[in-house]
Amino acid sequence: MSGVEYTVEFRAYSDDAWYSVNLSPEPDGDLRVSYTNISKKCDNVFHARNFSSWKEVEEFKGRFRKVSKQLQDEECRSVVNGMIVCACCEFINGDCRFYDARVKEFKGRLIGGLAMEGVGKGSGKEHYSTLRRV
């Protein structure tokens, strides 16, 4: 399977944010997770021998999903209270991370009219700018 890559989203262990990644099997059966547009030195290599139970394997599988699609302007009317979206959280240093969030209040417009609460343990932010459909 060498040379085959799959593009998906991965919820990183370090901050629980979602990142676009490429997956590639290693010759020894390990799995390389390469973050899109991030240095190769940040790649993670996961070794099958390090999983000690099926529960750990299932939790690991749950950290992957198909790439989420950015919500388009014409889809604004489909946003409703309680909806779970993947939202961009911008930090002071310009860093932008995506977290799953639940819409708390929608006032009919996406910018400035949306209040959300984080679903993942890493988010905890109340202000998001870009939405993706989960």
UniProtKB/TrEMBL annotation:
GO molecular function, a single term: chromatin binding
Residues of the SAWADEE domain: 5-107
InterPro entries named among the record's database cross-references: SAWADEE_dom
Pfam name, any one: SAWADEE
PANTHER family membership: SAWADEE PROTEIN (PTHR36384)
Record's protein name: SAWADEE domain-containing protein
The organism of origin for this protein: Lupinus luteus
